[in-house]
Amino acid sequence: MSTGITAINEQVRQHSAFVAALRAEISTVIVGQTYLVDRLLLGLLANGHLLLEGLPGLAKTLSVKTLAGAIHATMQRIQFTPDLLPADIIGTQLYNPKDGQFTTRKGPVFANLVLADEINRAPAKVQSALLEAMQERQVTIGPETFKLPEPFLVLATQNPIEQEGTYPLPEAQVDRFMLKLKVTYPNRDEERKILDAMASTTVNLSVRPVIELKQIVEARGVVDNIYVDDKIKDYILAIVFATRDPKEYQLDIGPFIRFGASPRATIYLTLAAKAHAFLQGRGYVTPQDVKSIAHDVLRHRILVSYEAEAEELTSEDLITRILNKLPVP
Length: 329
Prior knowledge:
- By secondary structure, the protein is an alpha/beta fold.
- The chain has a five-stranded parallel β-sheet with strand order 2-5-8-1-9.
- The chain has helices spanning 2-15, 17-27, 34-46, 60-70, 87-90, 124-136, 171-174, 188-198, 213-225, 230-244, 263-279, 287-298, 306-310, 315-325, and strands at 49-53, 75-79, 91-96, 101-106, 113-117, 138-141, 144-147, 153-158, 177-182, 257-259, 303-304.
């Protein structure tokens, strides 16, 4: 087994060489937000969609645009509004009266990176149109079905303070996001650097392509091969099952949880832990990899009860209790 891990380590070393260059190029535009940039890379490597929650002005859109430029990818931004139609996202068929034929006009979803800005401002029928694209990685327009480009990643944003005129995302759709990220303010030093770099009427926000998309696809193949020990797999299962049956794990948080994490949580915890190990340059997963991404994978998959709200407990508080209680392999 050690020989196999050595070989995987070597594969990871070769295929992850671009990560340092990519981070450096992104940092020429994005100041701070290391957590956000790392999770964007993680989602790209693990082939999982991301839900970003944060106040306006925290460089969410700029980060996605910068990442797209640095990996030579196509990017589309869709501003979700209450009057948006499914055709505005996936495209539609246009009738040409001259020849009596229908032609297909593809929508903005046909891009490598799709930024769905304020996704909860659009009604359910629009969200369901995006759902097919996220889950099936294909789009049906009229009688035809079209494959989406590879890689394909949806990055949706939500504003946590403005709830007027919004349509909460159904749990089934929220569950399809691999990670939910909480984007926070930069610290004082970072904001000073932002001031020095951005307080001008002529700011250069362009980046040069560092890698090609095919390298991302190749890196995904290496991520799939990263070794996960049986003890780590059991640890992941214990975390997920502790959200469903806390008593079995001597946890007193049962009254605070209405619904635990779905089986997708098990899959995404494993995939995200592999991608996290890849970003660290390792060919094997450690318990710390799992703990590092556990909040991002689980915070939107645990529905808290009224008792939890009364106690001012969030899903993140409950995840922390689970991680602190369960023995680490």
